[in-house]
Amino acid sequence: MKPVDLTLKGLEPVPTPWNSDMLKGMMISSELIQKRVGELADEIDRSMPDDKPVVVLSLLSGAFLFTADLVRHWRFSIELDFMGVSSYGKNVASGELSWTHPMQIDLKEKHVLVIDDILDTGQTLRKVTDKLHLSQPASLRTCVLLRKERQQPSEHSVNADFVGFFIPDQFVVGYGLDFALQFRQLPFIGVLDAHAPHTAND
Ligand code: PRP
Questions:
Q1: What is the rounded CA–CA span in Å between residue 120 and residue 156?
Q2: Which residues form the domain of 126?
Q3: Set 117, 120, 169, 202: catalytic member
Q4: Roughly what angle, to the nearest 10 degrees, separates helices 64-71 and 30-47?
Q5: Could you read off the pLDDT tens digit of each residue along the chain, which spans 202 residues?
Q6: 50 is catalytic
Q7: Would you say the CB of residue 86 lies under 6 angstroms from ligand 1?
Q8: 21, 82, 136, 152: which has the fewest C-beta neighbours closer than 10 Å?
Q9: Is 126 in the pocket of ligand 1 (CB under 6 A)?
Q10: What is the DSSP letter of 199?
Q11: Is any atom of ligand 1 closer than 6 Å to the C-beta of 184?
Q12: Domain assignment present for 190
């Protein structure tokens, strides 16, 4: 099934009690997220080979809610681990990733599915998959909830195998995504108001 394309969709009001002058609207409701997560889970389930162990590797911190909802759909056995990775200098050639939490699992000869919340420049997914290939997995696939449509093409361009939604190039928060560590707990995807007093200088 194709990703849901929201690139031309307008925003809805932020539901109570989550209203905040830092948010200018809701892009994806909790209900729509959960429906699409169920579809993605089915799609992955149907395509997952059963000849070798399956490792699900979730990228901290942004993918924690998406991972938790996705894996609860599955009845097949998985080994679940987390890898901490954080990016800075995203839009410059020297952009670096910092590894904040190492994975514990041996990936050799296993089917690996990497889960992240959003694919933006592609830097994170590109560098993570390059690193994981060194561990010689039997297969390596990627799943992201959101894929941002970028106005500026990125040098790191990379595709994900499973995508929940295509979204426009806006600063999104909620359902794992943060602004200055806030908003990760929202059950929906909202859009930050860049002109709000607390965000204007960040
Ligand atoms: C965010 C997000 C992705 C990455 C995507 O992580 O969780 O991992 O950026 O951006 P990219 O495609 O441009 O690399 P961030 O570094 O903000 O850390 P976090 O997950 O802890 O919020």
A1: 10
A2: 30-165
A3: 120
A4: 60
A5: 789 999 988 999 999 999 999 999 999 999 999 999 999 999 999 999 999 999 999 999 999 999 999 999 999 999 999 999 887 655 555 567 888 888 889 999 999 999 999 999 999 999 999 999 999 999 999 999 999 987 666 777 789 999 999 999 999 999 999 999 999 999 999 999 987 766 654 4
A6: no
A7: yes
A8: 152
A9: no
A10: T
A11: no
A12: no
| Residue 117 resides in a domain | yes
What is the per-residue burial (b if ≥16 Cβ within 10 Å, else e) of 43-80?
ebeeeeeeeebbbbbbbbbbbbbbbebbbeeeeeeeee
Q: In CATH, what number is assigned to the domain containing residue 89? A: 3.40.50.2020
Q: Where are the alpha helices (DSSP H) in 118-200?
A: 123-133
Residue 154: how many CA atoms within 13 Å on its side-chain side? 22
> How much distance in Å is there from the Cα of 134 to the middle of ligand 1?
22
Instruction: Sheet with 79-88: list strands edge to edge.
Output: 4-5, 162-167, 139-148, 111-119, 54-60, 79-88, 96-101
Q: Which amino acid is at 24?
A: K
Q: Alpha-carbon distance 14 to 24, whole Å? A: 8
| Whether the CB of 61 sits within 6 Å of ligand 1 | yes
Residue nearest to atom 20 of ligand 1 (CA): 62
Reading the block at residue 17, the tokens are 């009690």
**What is the radius of gyration, based on Cα positions, of the chain?**
17
Q: What is the total count of domains within the chain?
A: 1
Angular region, 84: left φ>0, alpha ψ -120 to 50, beta rest: beta
Q: What is the pTM of this model?
A: 0.92
